[in-house]
Amino acid sequence: MSIRKEWKKLVYVERELFRLAPLDGDRNARTVLLSREMHELFERQMEESEEANRRSRLLATLQNIVAGRRLVVCLEPFRARKANIGRLHPVEDSIFDIRCLEKPAVRVFCQFLERNVLLAVTCRPRSVSWLGWLPLGARSSKEWKRGMAATKLEWAKFFPTYSPVGGDNLDDYLSKATLERTRRGS
Amino acid sequence: MTIFQKQLLNELAAGPDGDPISESKLVYLQERLRGRFFDILIDRFELAREGGLTQRKLARRIRKSPEVVNRWLSAPSNLTLDSISDLFAGIGAEELNFSLASLLGRTPVNYWDLDDAPSIEEAQKEAHEEAQKESQPSTAEKNAMKQLKQEGGMGQPKQESGVASIEAAGS
Questions:
Q1: Prediction pTM value
Q2: Do the Cβ atoms of B159 and B149 come closer than 8 Å?
């Protein structure tokens, strides 16, 4: 069975993963699959608060991906500055974070199932606690490790016989994406 | 449609005399607009880059430092109306054309582009059929089972174990 058939089965038959719909009327150019944890985050009722605002920004960020908007990607761990998506260390794990940059910032741990198809597993606040999650903090913190471990665990649970998309060719991951330019670049 | 989206549309549909639109919905729309602006801007810049434009050249044209232009082209949150105006002028001697589109009464578009199914219902049907197919032996497997039966010597318990193993191999 192909990985596409696997994830379709998980979405439409087994209902273990959830496909994020764009706002009505928007294109559906890419696919963001949500883990149950992420799905429940977006479905739960929340009182109006800064925490709810952060969730709104996160939802809009993910829907921008679905709608096929231009994305800036950094494939070099620890070098992402303003990229929408950055690859995490170690690169062999093929784990990325979707970067919701408006402060207070949030990161979503994800992996690519195939071109333009991402599995968003869990999210963490970058530097200010959010909904009971501790901030990620420094690059070698326990929270980063927990996020990475949760992502690997979810992959092993649903796609044990497949590998996530890897390598250094941006085109293998996404359409309409550019690599983050450094100050030295043009 | 998510609960969030339903609430958003209900709040918007309430009109000028309705309750104030919640802050979280306004924040959502702000983030969405930033993404849309940035999308158009970077698309124009990428197109111009193919024609030889660089950030350095653009910076010189609009009297800004390369660092400033780099920052503007790096993230939607760095943009202001003034910087947008400068960038479009410098990239392609253009200005934005404005048009407004209602957020209400839209229909979902192209839900299932990956395999051209026209709707989510079709996509669900396809996935169900696929899953059903995967859990049943293929024609070749059925033929193999039939042949085994005809060759004889297979008691009921063996037949059962044969079916089980073929099903397992097919899943």
A1: 0.82
A2: yes
